[in-house]
Specification:
binds manganese (II) ion; binds pseudouridine-5'-monophosphate; about 300 residues; 11-stranded mixed β-sheet
């Protein structure tokens, strides 16, 4: 737990507070995917559906964001809707979370910032789409997401569909290994690649049951190995776009980013938006399906952790 001083800046949505107090399962959700990852109104519908899926699975959903400088652990439907519609929200990671609080700003929290806030609130499981990682060409750009360092320091289970295929998956796995982060593919021997079920890279670890993932996390904590854990959950077959078909689109989006001189925090949102346009919305459909799939697994892990 972080120092009590942080609690002065945090608002816990009542149903989430009740679940936490009762030791009931809670699943955190990020909000950069809402503010920067998907267009209106798909972002709003996705955020609502994902919360509903978690509730149906018997866990309390807690979408995390910063609103006017308050760290929100769980949003009311009206707050969620307002965030989805908001213009100019910041994209907040470890480096600027405190800035948004100090300056009373509004922002979506990335995987890194959501992990930090989840831990402050005592939430151990978090569902997202894809994590940030090592970008292609990082040997020149140095563009490596703060998500990876956060996984190395903050003990939260992050359920994702792997690293986005816009990243260098092989280098991302190398950094995670170096930083001591377990990467567990759920029911697969190979790493998924976000929109696709399979990448060419073997999964470092494999588990087939939500309860086993909960057990692994508990054991690591008991051993004092307090880092996060990345779960890579392949997108359902019916929704996947095969890697061969995505490859050309990703390359075209990358070329567009280079040509437009996009850098820093803008890279990931730019690539996602360009890929959405190039695939005529098909990538968005897959993106939504995989977040829902991750929410379901995260809820099951949270239930196992809570002993239910
Ligand atoms: N995956 C998506 N949509 C997103 C992101 C990931 O499908 O919007 C966001 C997540 O919040 C992730 C962030 O933490 O992108 C990583 O950004 P960067 O590469 O700048 O660290
Ligand atoms: Mn980056």
């Amino acid at each position: 737990m972080s120092p009590d001083s942080a609690m002065a800046f945090i608002d816990i949505f009542e149903p989430v507070a009740q679940a936490l107090a009762a030791g009931a399962p809670v699943v955190a959700l990020e909000s950069t995917i809402i503010t920067h990852g998907m267009p209106w109104p798909d972002n709003s519908r996705m955020a609502e559906n994902v919360e509903r899926i978690i509730a149906e699975e018997g866990a309390a959903p807690a979408t995390i964001a910063v609103v006017d400088g308050r760290i929100k652990i769980g949003l009311s439907p009206a707050e969620r809707e307002a965030l989805a519609k908001s213009q100019g929200a910041m994209k907040l990671s470890r480096a600027d979370l405190g800035f948004a609080v100090a300056e009373r700003r509004t922002g979506g929290t990335t995987v890194a910032a959501t992990m930090i806030a989840a831990r402050m609130a005592g939430i151990q499981v978090f569902a997202t789409g894809g994590i940030g990682g090592v970008h292609k060409g990082a040997e020149l750009s140095f563009d490596i997401s703060a998500d990876l360092d956060e996984l190395a320091r903050t003990p939260v289970i992050v359920v994702s569909a792997g690293a986005k295929a816009i990243l260098d998956i092989e280098k991302t796995l190398e950094v995670l290994e170096t930083r001591g982060v377990p990467v567990v593919a759920y029911g697969s021997d190979v790493m998924p690649a976000f929109w696709s079920r399979r990448s060419p890279y073997p999964a470092p670890l494999r588990l087939d049951e939500a309860a086993a993932i909960a057990g692994f996390f508990r054991t690591r904590r008991a051993l004092g190995l307090d880092s996060g854990m990345l779960i890579a959950n392949p997108v359902p077959e019916a929704d996947e776009i095969p890697a061969e078909r995505m490859a050309g689109t990703i390359a075209a989006a990358q070329a567009a980013a280079t040509k437009a001189g996009v850098s820093g925090k803008a890279v990931t949102p730019f690539l996602l938006k360009t890929i959405l346009e190039l695939t005529d919305g098909e990538s968005l459909k897959t993106n939504i399906a995989l977040v829902e799939n991750n929410a379901r697994l995260a809820a099951r892990i949270a239930r196992a952790l809570a002993g239910r």
